[in-house]
Amino acid sequence: MMKDQDHDHEHDHAESESPGHAAPKEALDEFAQVELAIRELLIERGLITQAQRRKYLDQIESSTSMLGARLVAKAWTAPDFRLQLLADARKAATEFLGIEILHGPALVALENTERMHHVVVCTLCSCYPKALLGIPPDWYKSFAYRSRMVAEPRSVLAQFGTDIPDDIEIRVVDSTADLRYLVIPRRPTGTDDLDESKLASLVTRDSMIGVSVLPEMRD
Amino acid sequence: MPRCVDAVQTVPRFGEGDRVRVQWRFPDGHIRTPFYLRGKTGTVVRSHGAFLDAERLANGLPGVPATVVYQVAFAWEDLFPAGADARGRTLILADLQDNWLDAVVQEVA
C-alpha cells in the first residue's frame, strides 16, 4: 500500500522511456526495510541461515488446504482420532501430518453437526490457520467479510450460497487472539464407500472456514 | 534481564457458564478485544489456558505475567439489536484476555 502511495510519479513504465532515463529504483517501504535489516542481522549473527529462511517461506507459500482436508477425512473415518483432534488439535495434527506446527499459534478444531454450524472470521485482522489451509483468500481479509460476518452472518453465508436452516445454531468464531480455528465440516451423505484419501479430496478450503457446506454425493 | 518464566496465572478465574462483562475502555495500541464487544455481557465457553500477554508483547514489553484467554459466547442479538438477520439462534464467540473481563453477578430472574 505504502509503495503505491509513494509511487505517484506519472510516467508509464510499460512504455519505452527516453534514452538515458534511468529506471526509477523501487523504494522499499518502511516495513520492508525493517524486515531486511533484521533478517540480515539474524543471518550475520548465525541465528538463522538463508537456507532455513528459504525453506520456511517455501513451506508457507506452497501449503494448501490439503493438510486440513487430510485431518478432516481422518476425523470422519477414525473415531479415536476425531476425539484427539477435538481435544488438542495442534498435537493431533502434528502427530498425524508429521509437520512441525508446534511453534505456531494454538489450534482448535470446531465440529459442525446437525445442530450447530461454525464459521470463522478474524474481525481484527486476518488470523487464519495457514499451516493447515495455506494462504488465506483475499475475501477473508476484506473489510466487508470481517465486519459483515459478525453483523449479519446468515446473510453473508447466503451470499456464499450456504443456506443454514433456522433450526441450526450458527456459531461465528472470531479469531481475536492466540488461537486458530479449523472447522470440521459435516461428512456428506453418500460417501460411505469412499476411503480416506477420496474423502480428503472432497473437503474444500471454504468448508473448513465454515462459509460453505459440502454437497451430498449422488449416484 | 526480563525473566522468560514468570508466575503464570494458571487457575482460570472463570469457568464454563460464568457470565462476564467486557470492560468499556479504549486504550491505544495493539488490542485484541474488538470494539463491538466492549461493554457487552457474554458467557464463558471455555478457558484456552495461559498465554503470554499479547497487549504487553505488542508494546515491546515481555509478555509476562501471562494471562488466561477465554472463549466467550455472546448472543448475536445482544450485539446487533437492530440487525435484520434474526433467523434462528446465532452466537458470536471470541477469545478474550482475563484482564478485559469482569464477573457479572447473576441477575435474579
Provide tags for this entry.
heterodimer; A: 219 residues; mainly alpha; Nitrile Hydratase, Chain A; 2 domains; two-stranded parallel sheet; disordered N terminus; B: 109 residues; mainly beta; SH3 type barrels; five-stranded antiparallel beta sheet; 5 strands; globular
Could you characterize what this model shows?
With 219 residues, chain A is mainly α. Chain A is built from twelve helices and four strands, in the order ααααααββααααββαα. The N and C termini of chain A lie far apart (49 Å). The relative contact order of chain A is 0.14. Mean pLDDT of chain A is 86; it is low at 1-23. With 109 residues, chain B is mainly β. Chain B is 8% helix and 32% strand. Chain B has helices at residues 54-58, 76-79, and strands spanning 19-22, 41-51, 67-75, 90-97, 101-103. Chain B has a five-stranded antiparallel β-sheet with strand order 4-3-2-1-5. The N and C termini of chain B lie far apart (52 Å). Classes of the chains: A mainly alpha (219), B mainly beta (109). The interface between A and B is medium-sized, with 26 and 28 residues.
Summarize the structure.
The complex is a heterodimer of chains A (219) and B (109). With 219 residues, chain A is mainly alpha-helical. Chain A is built from twelve helices and four strands, in the order H-H-H-H-H-H-E-E-H-H-H-H-E-E-H-H.
Strand residues, percent of chain A? 5-15%
Tally of alpha and pi helices of chain A: 12
| CATH architecture label of the largest domain in chain A | Alpha-Beta Complex
Proportion of residues in β-strands of chain B: 25-35%
Which H/E pattern describes the elements of chain B?
Answer: EEHEHEE
| Low-pLDDT sequence parts of chain A | 1-23
Give me the CATH fold name of the largest domain in chain A.
Nitrile Hydratase, Chain A
Number of strands of chain A: 4
Strand order of the largest sheet of chain B: 4-3-2-1-5
**For the residues shown, what is the average pLDDT of chain B?**
85
CATH architecture of chain B: Roll
| Helicity of chain B, as a percent range | under 10%
